[in-house]
Write a structure and sequence with these properties.
alpha+beta, globular, two-stranded antiparallel ribbon, single chain, 5 helices, about 10% strand, 3-stranded antiparallel sheet
């Protein structure tokens, strides 16, 4: 009996550890009752006027040029999109963006815009505090001991954002349609 209980305990523990490393495929967008409709609306307004879609939304080509692909709104650089050939000589004088404006290359290497949707592959599992740390301190995933956010993310512009505005942005982003997209890790200059 003790042996079977031990095996059962190990099995349950193992399953919980394994499941913590997987992403739900179709997590439903949920916003805590903690946020008011006014906060979500203000957050939507701020995300729009601050140009978050410029880099965090993949693009489709229209007659007027590239426009945000609203079916993938705020989902970051598409995981399926490879990095094109990079002329390292150009990086001595230029910073370059891909056609969707979701990847940038410069002296730091290649950086990819993050998934900001409510999916677990985006900010779906983030806390409000993590979002504020990422936005105002430039730390990946809002973890102070993590790597810095890379250019062109202009986090320095948001250092003095009012907490109520950052919270409103978070409330809106947590209300977005979840888009499953694991954004690639940055590529260091020596790997180009």
């Amino acid at each position: 009996m003790k042996k079977s209980m031990l095996i059962l305990s190990i099995l349950v523990f193992s399953c919980s550890v394994i499941s913590s490393f997987t992403y739900p495929q179709n997590e439903t967008s949920k916003v805590s009752n903690k946020y008011t409709p006014q906060q979500v609306e203000k957050g939507k307004y701020l995300v729009e006027i601050m140009g978050c879609r410029d880099c965090h939304s993949p693009k489709v080509m229209t007659a007027q040029g590239p426009a945000s692909d609203m079916s993938k709104d705020l989902s970051g650089h598409p995981a399926s999109m490879p990095v094109g050939k990079i002329n390292k000589e150009s990086l001595k004088e230029w910073v370059l963006f891909n056609m969707m404006n979701t990847a940038a290359v410069g002296p730091w290497g290649v950086s990819f815009s993050a998934n900001l949707t409510s999916d677990a592959t985006g900010i779906g599992t983030w806390s409000e505090e993590q979002f504020i740390i990422a936005l105002t301190e430039g730390k990946s995933k809002g973890i102070r001991s993590a790597r810095p956010l890379l250019p062109p993310m202009p986090w320095q512009n948001y250092v003095n954002i009012k907490k109520e505005d950052a919270v409103a942005m978070f409330a809106y982003l947590k209300s977005t349609k979840p888009v499953n997209n694991v954004v690639p890790q940055p590529i260091s200059p020596d790997k180009l």
